[in-house]
């Protein structure tokens, strides 16, 4: 399950399950784009920092 949380600054943060992140090699600080699809959303990893 994906969670959307709102920080005190008003910024929204998306939290994904750890297993999904491991499977897709997503680490903290990486950039992920979401595009609208007729059945939902498509997630695309676009790069960014490669974690700590």
Radius of gyration: 12 Å
Q: How many helical elements?
A: 1
Binned strand content: over 45%
pLDDT below 50 for ≥5 consecutive residues: which ranges? none
The N- to C-terminal Cα distance equals: 24 Å
Main beta sheet, described?
A: 2 strands, antiparallel
* Overall residue-averaged pLDDT value: 85
Strand order of the largest sheet: 1-2
Number of extended strands: 4
| Helix/strand structural class | mainly beta
Total number of domains: 1
H and E order: EEHEE
Approximately how much helix is present in the residues?
10-25%
Silhouette: globular
Main attributes of the structure:
single chain, mainly beta, two-stranded antiparallel ribbon, 12% helix
How would you describe the overall organization of this protein?
By secondary structure, this protein is mainly β. The chain has one domain (3-48). Helices cover 12% and strands 48% of the residues. The chain has one helix spanning 18-23, and strands at residues 3-6, 12-15, 30-37, 40-48. Strand 1 and strand 2 (12-15) form a beta hairpin. The chain is globular. It starts with a strand and ends with a strand. The relative contact order is 0.22. The mean pLDDT is 85.
């Amino acid at each position: 399950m994906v969670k959307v949380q709102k920080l005190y600054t008003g910024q929204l943060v998306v939290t994904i399950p750890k297993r999904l992140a491991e499977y897709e090699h997503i680490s903290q600080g990486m950039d992920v784009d979401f595009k609208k699809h007729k059945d939902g959303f498509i997630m695309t990893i676009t790069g960014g920092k490669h974690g700590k």
